[in-house]
Each structure stands twice: as structure tokens, then as C-alpha cells.
Fold these 3 entries.
Entry 1:
Amino acid sequence: MTLSQDYRTIMLEKKGGIATLTLNRPEKYNALNRTMSDELTKAMSDITGDRDVRVLVITGAGSAFCAGADVESLREEMTPIQVWTWTRETGNIILSMADLEKPVIAKVNGVAAGVGCSLALNADIIIASEIAKFNLVFSRAGLICDGGSSFNVARLVGPAKAKELYFTARSVEAQEAERIGLINRAIPAGQLDEEVNKLAEQLANGPIVAFGIAKKIINKGLNMDLSAVLELEAAVQTVIETTEDFKEGVNAFLQKRNPKFRGK
């Protein structure tokens, strides 16, 4: 295992093709401040450029995933350009997750509120402890959603439910979040680490090139018609069939064994 020592508000560990990015301000429920924003930007750049990383897991230290923006750090009056810069910085972190050509798993161990909720819901797969809660708390401060929730939540649960969750700013417990399609799974707290580790290992051993391209097509396909998606699939599949992973997958199928994908 390698552990980066360059960060003050996050931890970045890499082991067996899995990068684990932990928000690490437990005394503040991992609330996002400017230092954390800068460090997340740096960490995402590291993960994007590291070919040995095949899966990213994002979680929080202590009892929370992320309680949103650090209100204390934002109490000072900010100019419009400072507000724009801060919002764009957090938006770029969200975009880097969406653009990452590797699966991203959010391991939600506790409350995910405001931009912390946005961060969790932007992951490709969201696994939560049954004690976790999700809250689009923005309206309590007279704000609109940011961190991509205006985009992601409506696509996960539909526009009517998305508006309800934003207008009321109510907490959604993990089991309800699973039922309405906001997250993938809610599991007992004591099983969270085991289940996420098992899933991350499974994905890390999968055809990572195909995963990355499929992720892009699924994301882009939300804004395309069926005909365009079919054309894109045909073009991409032609390229995928030239990869070593494809050849290994076919050979493993014919030999009745598990494939050993190398990400090439």
C-alpha cells in the first residue's frame, strides 16, 4: 500500500489497483473548505494520471461522509468573483470524477449534505451505510444546488422528486435513498467496508478500458437520442475489439476460466 503524505485535509491510499480518497476533517464532519478543495483537485489529477489505479473509492473519516461546505470558512463576505471561483473549483472536482475513465465508488459512511451530497451522488456507484443520510440542504441558506446536483439528482430520481428534495431540504435516510433510486445500495454499517472492498476488487480486475469508455457513453447518452447512441456504440465497439482485454476475454470464455484483464 502507498499512502500520500502531502495532504492536510484528505488521505489518498493506493493498493492493488484501488485508490481510496478519504475526506479527513472528522472534527468538522469533513466539511469542504478551500484547502480541501485544492487538495481534492490535486488528488484527482494524480489519480487520473496513474495508470496503475483502476478504481477510485471516495469516503469520509469518522462519522460523516461530508457535511457540505465549511460554513465558518465562508462566513466572511465574499465578492461575486470569489463566489464564482469557489463554485467553479468544486464544480471542476465533480467534473473530474465524471470524466475519470475508471469506476468511482462513493462509500457513504454517514451524513452527506449540501456539496457533500453532490459529491457522493456524482459517483458511478453509491453504497451507503444504513445510518447514512442525504440532504440537499442548500435552500436553508437561500442557495440553489451546486456540485452538479441540479444535473444528477433529477436524472437519478426524476425532476419532481428532485425539486421536492431541494425545496424541503429534508434528510433522506439510506433505505429510502435506495428505494427511490438515489443510491445503489444501503447496507448495515458493520458490513460497509467489506462490501465496498469486495466490489472495488471486482471492478479493479475487470476490463478497465471498456469500463472507462462505457462510462462516457452512458453519461453522454443521457443527452443523445437512441440512433446517435447506437452509432457511437458501433464505432467504439470496433475499437474495443482491437484491445488485448477483448482477446483475453474471448480466450477465457472459450477456455472456461476467469479472464485476467490488464487494462490494455
Entry 2:
Amino acid sequence: MTTGAGRRVLLLQGPSNDFFALLGDALAARGAQAFHLALCPGDALMRRGRRARWWRGAPDEWPAWIAAHLAAEGITDLVLLGDHRPRHGPAMIAARAGGVRVHHAELGLLRPGRLSLEPDGPGAWFPRSADGIRRLAARARGAGGPDGPCAAAPAGFAAYAGMDVAWNMANVLAAWALFPGYERHQLWHPLAEYAGWAWKAARAGRDRRQGAALLAAWGLDRADAPRAPVFVLLLQLRGDAQIRARGPDADLRVTLRRVVADFSANAPPDARLLIKTHPMDNALTPWRRIAKRAAGAAADRAEVVDRVPLAPLIAGAVGVVTVNSGAGLEALAAGRPVKALGRAVWDVPGLCHPGPLAGFWHDPAPPDMALVADMLIALDWACHVPGAFDGPAAREGASAMAARILAPPRLMPPRGAGCGPRGDRPPIGPPPP
């Protein structure tokens, strides 16, 4: 077992459940000292009796306070989820300045059964060249390869929703009194989001029937069905930091308009565009209306679907477009050409289409499958641990994550600035009128 002697680990906000409480226990079991810092009532609630210091100051006091706190407590490691949450960005800056190791936790890109844990933020230290990926894959194979997914099943939706509601409602009801400086990181107010989910559940049957009918009409329900060329656009969540901070636009609606307008202007006249919403989309954004308006004369060749399986869409697509969704990796693994619009860690020459989106509709570049295999092994070995944030696999995930935090890093910091998925927003083209 990796020893944590001498390591002092500060846990900021994690997922909206008790996973970080379990992670603190797993770190302590390995000899490290785990410190919990609650930034809102939900954090305090989900620590489930673990001693946590409450920070209740004003937002402008936080940068200086967290820098002083890291130094005073002798913190060696900082763990958090969401590098663009209001308190997390300044905390990461202070940690780097003070020589504190930063560990960013998130759902794994290679799901199910995996969590990601990366130094210094999502993709910050991962190689961004084909040669770098090949070297990392060789190291992974030499070390015995990745651990792979966990065996335990994740929690059902009811268990996940129960924790999420408890965390959010604690903040809605008590933040004003207990944590007056608290700022939500979510795009939507929790009550609005829950209303959207209720509406989505009420129309679930209709959405499935409509999606199945469209797949059949476009020949995507059978591998041998004749079909016109179909491109698939995979939407993400509007509130996801991968969109708001690492996408071509801070608002996914703008990106959708640009992609659909580009398809309408540049795609072959027989091509079709199928836009798939994210499974966790809250139904508060009128994606179909936005897409139809942006498509103009091509409106009959662009459709939006919800609650349809991803595999047949990828299998039947001549090309897949996404900002930086992990589903892009599924498309690459299936050998489909992929155009990444954001700063995806897997958007490197040899994997994704290198040219403008306008050319992708006519000549999508297929991936180098040997490089795809190296990418999957390197990413899994360097950035993933087995487990889940909730359900029976949560303890396994906490144990594996604690071991990885305390172990020597598998990635080395990049040389110079501009490495990793940071920098200016990549261009798509001019916004539609």
C-alpha cells in the first residue's frame, strides 16, 4: 500500500454527494492527513460528520485567505472537482505558487467504471502530440497497462438524484444564513433544473418513439440499410466547464448555431445532420428550435433527437462533430472521422480531422487506428482510476483515487506555456446572422 506519511491533503468541493468524505477516509487509512473545507451547506452536509472547517467569508477575501491557509496548515496536496468553480480557480493559483500539488477529480472520459484524476486540471499535463502519446502508451504497456474499470455497478438514478437534491436544497435553504458569500457554479438554479427533469421524464416515451422513428427513416437502425450521408453532432451540457471554459464559445447555443449554419452552407446537398442531446440535458434549452432556425434552407436535413442509443449513431455516421465530449473517443475507437471544436485532450494530428469544419462535410479525415489504440491506453493508464462517485463502486473509487494521489505522478508537467487544453478559444467560423 502506498504510504501517505507526511502528506497533508486539503479537500475542496467534490461531486454533490459524500464521495469526498470517503476519499478523506481512504487517505487517512494510508497515513495521510485529510482536511475538509466546506464552502456551502451542501459540503458540510455531505462530509457526514467528518470534521470540516467552514469558510464563510466574502468572495474578494478568498484568494488571500486560501493562500494563507495552505501555508499555515502545511498542505502538500489540494484535491477538487471543477477547476472553474468560483473558489477553485484562485485556490489552484495559490497552490501552484506555494508548491502544493493540485489533483483534479472528475468522471472518467473512458466510461463506465472509471474516474479521472489529473494533475493541475483537466488535460493540463497530457501530451498534445502523436509522438508524446506513443511514448506515454509505451510507458503504460511497460508498467502493465491500465487498471481498467471497476467491477461494481454504479448507483441507480434514484440514489444519485437523492444525494444531488440533498446537496442542492441544503444550499438553497441555508446558504444565505450560514455561508453568505456562497456562489453557485451551476448555470441553472436547482429548482429550475429539477422542473426541467420532471418535464423531460413526462415526455420520455414520446421522445423515444420519435427518436426510433427518425433513426429508421434515416437508415440508422440497421447496419445494412441504404442511407444518405449522415453526420452526427453530439451536444454536451450547457453548464459544463468543458463548454463554458474550453469550448469555442462560452454558450453552447452559439456553437450549435455556428455548426448548423456551416452545415447548411457547406455540406453536400444530400447530406444530413443528426444532433443528439446529452443524456443528462435538463430539457430547458429548445435545441430543436435553435437548430431549425440556424439551418435555414437545410432545415429538413437537420434534426434533433433525445433518448436514443449512441452506438448506432456512431456506427452509421460518416463523421462525428463534438466540442470535446468523451463520446468523441468512442467515435474514434469505432474508426469514425471526428471533428473536435474545443480544446479536447484527444484533438491531435492523426486522431481528429485537422482542417476547417467546412471541409469536414466533404472529406472527413479518418483516424490513425494505431494512434487511437495508443491514446486509449495512455489516457486510461495516466489519468483514470477504477470506481464511481456513487453507489457500490464509490468506496473502490475513493480507495483507488487516494492511492493515485499519494503515488508518484504518471504525467510530467509540460515544457513552456500553452500546453494542455488551455489558451484562446479555437475558431469555428463566423457566427450566424
Entry 3:
Amino acid sequence: MYKMKYRILFPLVLILPVLVNAQLKIKNAEDFKIGTVLRFQKCDTMGITAGSGGENQTWDFSQLKLKSDTNTEWMVLPSATPYADKFPTATQVEKYSDGSFVYVDKEKDQSNLVGYASAYMAIAYPKPVPFAKRPISYKDKCTTNFTDNFAMSGMNFSGSGTATIEADGYGKLILPNKTYKNVLRVKVTQLQMDTIKQYGSVSRMNTITYAWFDGNNTSALFKISYTKSMGYNAASVEYLLSEKNK
């Protein structure tokens, strides 16, 4: 979805696991500090599925086909970006290496998407989209309503939707560069309906992101995102190469 968290939306998020009644608990999903730098390896999406949720899963992605490029994200202050005036409630911005920006209002117990901007478009969320909950444990689930407005290709859109954050599994994650034990998988689902003001027609979009966290990184270790709308389908797969803090 236009690069919302995870990545896009959305991007989705978590940390410091402890076992309580056999449940994995993560306390700082995407609780990034200004100055944090993340780097992700892009992967081929062909044939990749998120696998099953549930207890004591093994998610084996060791055979991922790597692309030649990577993504880098910098956590910066809104004042250090060119679109800060469009999103006055943002307290932090995720600056991407492709020139786009995700504007975030970070609270103690959650992170909220308030806007996205690039040289081509800007999307505002007057009622923000929560994309990370802190803390979160297996089987935790919450759904929140949001609103949006933006312009694209000479048309004006406005709408609303629901965002659901659900911790749907835990177990072992196997990636090409490392194996992680005691990881929690979080599924973020965004359903959005926008009205094209010039025509009165409605567009629908569904974005699902799966993200895995281990308690030693604030960032997700691995992310799979799918976006579907009328006449448009997209997917992305990437895993964490490094997380550095100044």
C-alpha cells in the first residue's frame, strides 16, 4: 500500500522476549530512536508464502533468492525532511533510500502512521493508522479505524479503513544469513476504501504484512508484504542485514 509501514504499511514491529505461560512477549516493537539506521536485503517474491501461524513453528526461508539491491532506512526528526509541514503531528520519520518518507507519531505503547510522502504523492491519515503495539504477545489482536486523503494522477481520493495487528505465531526463523530462535510473528492487515471525488467511484485495497521479531532487534528480522486492489497487485520480501544506533 503505497509504502506504508512494512514496508509498506506498513510496514508492521517488536523486542525483549520473555516466556510467560509459554507465551513469547515483545516489549518494544519499532520503538526506534532518532539516528537508528536499518539495512534490508531485497529478495525475489516468486513462490514465497508466509507459512502457517501457531505455536512452535519453524519458518524456513533459507533458500530465498537474493536481489542485487538493498533498502536502507534512517530514523530522523521531521524537521530534517522536506514534507514536515504536511504532517505536523509526526514525531519521527523513516527516511528510505528510494527518496520516500514515512511520517510517524510514536507513543509509549504504539507507533502510528500519520503520512507518507515522495516526489510523486503525499498521503495523509487524519485519523492515524497504528502499525506497532508495545508490548505484544502471542494471540494478542487489536483492530483500529483510520481515515486518509491524497491526490494522484489528477484525481483526489478520501476514505477510511481498518488496521488489524495480530501476533499469530511463534517459533524458529531460518534465513539465508542466520537462524533465530524464539521469534514472534506479527500479521498486520489493512483494509481501505477510498472514494474518487471527481467520479464518486470507490477503490478498495487490501495490504497484508507478516513480520518476525526476536527480542534482540527493534526492527523486524524478516518481512513479507502483499497488496491487492482493483487492477493492481504487488509483493515485497526482505530481511534485516543490520540495525545500528548512533
